[in-house]
Amino acid sequence: MITSSTSARRSRLAGSTASAAALVVLVSACGGTGGGSASAPDNFSYLSVTENTTVKTALTTLSKGECKTAQDGLPLKVETVPQASLDQKLQLLAGQDALPVQFAAGNAPALTQQLYKSGKVADLEAKLTSLGVFDQLEPAAVSTIKALYGGKVEVLPYEYNIEGIFYNKKIFSANGLSVPGTWSELVAAAAKLEAKGIQPFSASGQQGWPLTRLISGYLYRSLGPDALQAVADGKAKLTDPAYVKAAQEVAALGKKGYFGKGVGSIDYDTSMNEFLSGKAGMLYMGSWALANIADEKQNKVGADNVGFMPFPAVEGGKGSIEQYPSNVGLGITLGAKSFDKKTGAWVSCIAKNYGSTALKDQGAISGFKVNTPVENSNEVTGQVRETISASKQNVLWFEALFSTKATTVSQSNAAGLVAGSLSPEKFMRTVQDALAEK
Amino acid sequence: MHRVLGDRKAVLILLGPALLVYSLIMLVPMVWSFGYSFTEGNTVEGFTGNGLDNFQRLFSDPAVRDALWFTAKYAVVVTVGQVVAGYLLALLYVFFLKRASALVRTLVFFPVVLPTVAVGLLFQKFFQVAPQTGPVNSLLNAVGLDSVDWFGSAGHAFWVLIVMDIWRSMGFYAVLLFAGLVDIPEEVLESARLDGASGLRLVRHIVLPMSFPVLMSSVIFSINGTLKVFDSIVALTNGGPGSGTTPLTLYMFQTSFTYGDYGYGSTIALLLTVVCLLVTLVVFRVSRRDPTEG
């Protein structure tokens, strides 16, 4: 009896010691630096944002077609997170040394640069040159990337976008409107639509950036293409009257109800849907929207009824409507440690084939060369492609040179600015304060 | 029993695993985090010591002041709401519904088991103004009032949050307090009734003092939970509009994980810990008073 109880106690003790030891192992495994970023990856893992479906779809298509060989060596595995949680996810993964092979590199170039400086992101110019495919990148896209990322190619141009205002041609002609060339013409057109009971602009206040883009658009037209570089260099402040004026103009649009009700609750898809279902006359958006415009399921007004105009000029301003805001979409990059031969095979294949695949299947324009000629699926795609190839000088967007914090502050307060709960002065001061922090 | 508890080895074996787990997942990270508050940087860039800079920044940061004020406001309103609503429900169960209360108790408890995110989405749809008009705004329109953009201003969003959190948790406090109320001996209530106490007087002089300990537990429970509120705000407003409904917890989270400033984030966490500690101490001090006197 005594023996059995002692042995039972012993085995219990052994059991608890074992579980404690297991726990210690578990905890130390979690905190370790081994992580998932082994030098030889098992998958061509790709972390992106839920909102962006273009790249995911095109890569999947490539994996079954042109990039079949690369796929056999290293199967594509896509994971997505909501765009708003991307930065957090990246910080945590980077901390654990568990970044995927390819990933969306953060909502602000600042984070990408941080990752690059700490050796987590590959030097893509060197890698692509050694693979012999650097010439597959459009020079305009390379120069935009370099402008954004301190002279380095830290991301791939899966998208090459110019931004402007898409408008509903049918609504415009039915109301006797011509394409506005100046800001005051734009405001007048909006007033006319509002009077007719048509919502002039569709914009996602939840995302915030479609609203702050209007501020930067105004600034580039009124103060010239260096307007925001001057802020980044400390030569000007967002609280300077000329800068506040831009926020006032945009807030005035909101005050008049031109963005519709509850703009802060409108998410990206809803705003796109409002425009594509003909409920709103105009949509400030990048050329990535061409994919949505070409999609008959989404676009109820028909691709032929969508027009594209540059951000209008500001009377007496230093900028020109020829200067399009351009970007490479959400920067997508590759991890430095997992960049091996098999990853290289994928990257070479992407560089050679992505441009035509994305354009052919989805009408999406990238910064990769289009090696197989693709006919324009609709007029507006042709117009945008011509504009891109003809554009000589490009500008960036409002938060392009901001820190991660200032970017968040700017985008999360934009809805308040147009809803009237935050004055233009207060908005610009809040963003400037966030910028002033290191 | 005494022999077992007197045996040091037995005590060690009984307490050891729990203590180990507690230390590993609670104490070690706390000490670690305290250490981080004297540094700047993040896991991407690495950490460098910066002395007391974070603490200086903490006292001069207007965002901390706003978040602290919001946290306090939220904690007080929700705690009062939760406990009062819970207590009223418990009184209803015990004195009015009596044995028939099981169904109502289950129904009122139901939101407690729903995931916060689901409740957040539910309330978003409930109060939305666009793209579709939600039920609340439809109701306002029906009585001739204009729609309100509930999430467009911090003031309105705050009240939606309050309503949501009270609705979500009052069932839990009702059950907790119900357990306290059914513990009051029937004889005491009976003799009070014989002495002529009824209705409010019975509650004020007999029920309230006798359920005071469990009421205090509820308050401590509630205030600590509400000071650390995170999930329901993230699900409903994500701290917006702007930073209008950002409590300390969310500001800490954003600072650490979005802005990549772990050091300052840890300092904010430390502030939150101190606040929780102080509030609990105050509540304990107050609850030591014997309510049956005076």
Automatic annotation (TrEMBL), chain A:
Is Cytoplasm one of the keywords?
no
Gene3D superfamilies for the chain: Periplasmic binding protein-like II (3.40.190.10)
InterPro entries, from UniProt? Bact_solute-bd_prot1, SBP
Q: Does the keyword Transport apply?
A: yes
Q: Which Pfam families does the entry mention?
A: SBP_bac_1 (PF01547)
Q: Which UniProt keywords apply?
A: Signal, Transport
- Which region is the signal sequence? 1-20
State the protein's name. ABC transporter substrate-binding protein
Please name the source species.
Streptomyces dioscori
Automatic annotation (TrEMBL), chain B:
The entry's localization annotation reads:
Cell membrane
Q: Per its UniProt record, what CDD domains does this chain match?
A: TM_PBP2
Q: What is its main location?
A: membrane
- ABC transmembrane type-1 domain mapped to chain residues: 68-283
Listed PROSITE patterns: ABC_TM1
Where is the chain membrane-spanning? Answer: 12-32, 74-96, 103-123, 157-182, 202-223, 262-284
Name the membrane topology term. Multi-pass membrane protein
Q: Keyword annotations for this protein?
A: Cell membrane, Membrane, Transmembrane, Transmembrane helix, Transport
**What InterPro entries does the database record attribute to this sequence?**
MetI-like (IPR000515), MetI-like_sf (IPR035906), UgpAE/MalFG_permease (IPR050809)
Q: Which residues form a coiled coil?
A: none
A GO CC term assigned to this protein in UniProt: plasma membrane
Example GO biological process term? transmembrane transport
> What Pfam families has UniProt attached to this entry?
BPD_transp_1
Q: Please report which protein family the annotation says this sequence is part of.
A: Belongs to the binding-protein-dependent transport system permease family.
- State the name under which the record lists this protein: Sugar ABC transporter permease
